[in-house]
Design a protein that fits this description.
Keywords: ATP-binding, Cell membrane, Magnesium, Membrane, Metal-binding, Nucleotide-binding, Translocase, Transmembrane, Transmembrane helix. It comes from Prauserella flavalba. One of its GO terms (molecular function) is metal ion binding. This is Cadmium-translocating P-type ATPase. It is found in: Cell membrane. There is one protein chain. The chain is an alpha/beta fold. The chain folds into 2 domains: about 5-45 and about 160-285, 3-Layer(aba) Sandwich (Rossmann fold); about 50-160, Calcium-transporting ATPase, cytoplasmic domain N. Helix content is about 45%, strand content about 25%. It contains 13 helices and 13 strands. It has helices at about 5-15, 25-30, 40-45, 60-70, 80-90, 120-125, 130-140, 165-175, 190-200, 210-220, 235-240, 255-260, 270-285; strands at about 20, 35-40, 50-55, 100-105, 105-110, 115-120, 140-150, 150-160, 180-185, 205, 225-230, 245-250, 265. A 7-stranded mixed beta sheet has the order 1-13-12-11-2-9-10, with helices on both faces. A 6-stranded antiparallel beta sheet has the order 3-8-7-6-5-4. Helix 4 packs across helix 5 (about 80-90) and helix 8 packs parallel to helix 13 (about 270-285). The longest helix has 16 residues, at about 270-285. The chain is elongated. The two termini are about 20 Å apart. The model has no long low-confidence stretch (mean pLDDT about 95). The structure holds adenosine-5'-diphosphate and magnesium ion. Magnesium ion binds near residues 38, 42, 233 and 236. Adenosine-5'-diphosphate binds near residues 38, 106, 108, 119 and 142.
Length: about 290
């Protein structure tokens, strides 16, 4: 007996490295008309590296890094892992983090050596702006601010490499849907625009909190598009769930994100996304 076309399409997606959760999920992928990509961990490798340490006068580079890394120890965020790795590489001894809390899309807070330490985006921690953060962002870094007991202790500059296959994947998605993809990111506008230019995305929406990503998807869908959101982070879970279709990058994806998705990319390769969309479309033509 031949396999029913839906099952054949799901099996085929599996061979391309995409786990499609159900027949309904396949239908959603196949009827997608616009794709929204997250940046960090989706279009970038998600392996950011610490590039600069800019402590305030009176604190040295290791002191700043030790403070930031201690607070970030419990965090799963790619930026947090880069900070902790850099501290370990320098042989720094990290005191424990107490009362740790993460604010998705903003940063973390913890008590270190009895002091309240916050590590996160300039938008969240220095809304009035900060010259060093601005300088780093203009140069394409993600700036991460460290605040100790209410005072800025310094700024970290972090860079993340674009995935080699990001530009071809974006081009394939553009051809397939006939619509320009969108970038939705919590990162700053300068870093986002630089990356978007490198991968061929013109529509950039930056500085978005998780709820803003949901509103952005709502706007795109109100304009008559059926949107598939591709993301990896816990900050993408609400948008993945709200969109017509949700695609999670499995590599570093959080459980919540995997649960919210219709499909999971289990191979560390973004071209699996256009491949899955293409065969979901074909399956739809066969069935209907
Ligand atoms: P993206 O949408 O690009 O995947 P996120 O929404 O995860 O980015 O994060 C948005 C911004 O929030 C980051 O660029 C960073 O400035 C800040 N941020 C979030 N989590 C952390 C963390 N654990 N440590 C430092 N900064 C963080
Ligand atoms: Mg991400």
């Amino acid at each position: 007996a031949t396999m029913p076309p839906l099952l054949a399409a799901i099996a085929n997606a599996g061979r391309h490295g995409v786990l499609v959760k159900s027949a309904v999920a396949l239908e959603r992928l196949g009827s997608t008309t616009r794709v929204a990509f997250d940046k960090t961990g989706t279009l970038t490798r998600g392996a950011p590296e610490l590039a600069e340490l800019r402590p305030v006068p009176g604190l040295d580079a290791d002191g700043l890094l030790r403070l930031a890394a201690a607070a970030e120890q419990p965090s799963e965020h790619p930026l947090a892992r880069a900070v902790v790795r850099a501290a370990r590489d320098r042989g720094l001894h990290l005191p424990p983090a107490h009362d740790f809390a993460a604010q998705p899309g903003r940063g973390v807070s913890a008590r270190v050596d009895g002091e309240l330490v916050r590590v996160g985006s300039p938008a969240a921690l220095v809304p009035e702006g900060h010259p060093v953060a601005h300088e780093l962002e203009r140069r394409g870094h993600t700036a991460v601010v460290v605040v100790r007991d209410g005072h800025v202790a310094g700024v970290l500059g972090i860079t993340d490499q674009v995935r080699r296959e990001a530009a071809p994947a974006v081009a394939a998605v553009t051809t397939l849907t006939g619509t320009a993809p969108v970038l939705l990111t919590g990162d700053n506008h300068a870093a986002a625009a630089r990356l978007a230019g490198a991968v061929g995305i013109a529509d950039v929406r930056a500085g978005l909190l998780p709820a803003d990503k949901v509103s952005a998807v709502g706007e795109l869908e109100a304009a008559g598009r059926r949107v598939a959101v591709v993301g990896d982070g816990i900050n993408d879970a609400p948008a993945l769930a709200a969109a017509h279709a949700g695609i999670a990058m499995g590599g570093a994806g959080s459980d919540l994100t995997l649960r919210a998705a219709d499909a999971i990319v289990v191979r560390d390769d973004l071209t699996a996304v256009p491949a899955a969309l293409a065969l979901a479309r074909r399956a739809r033509r066969v069935v209907t």
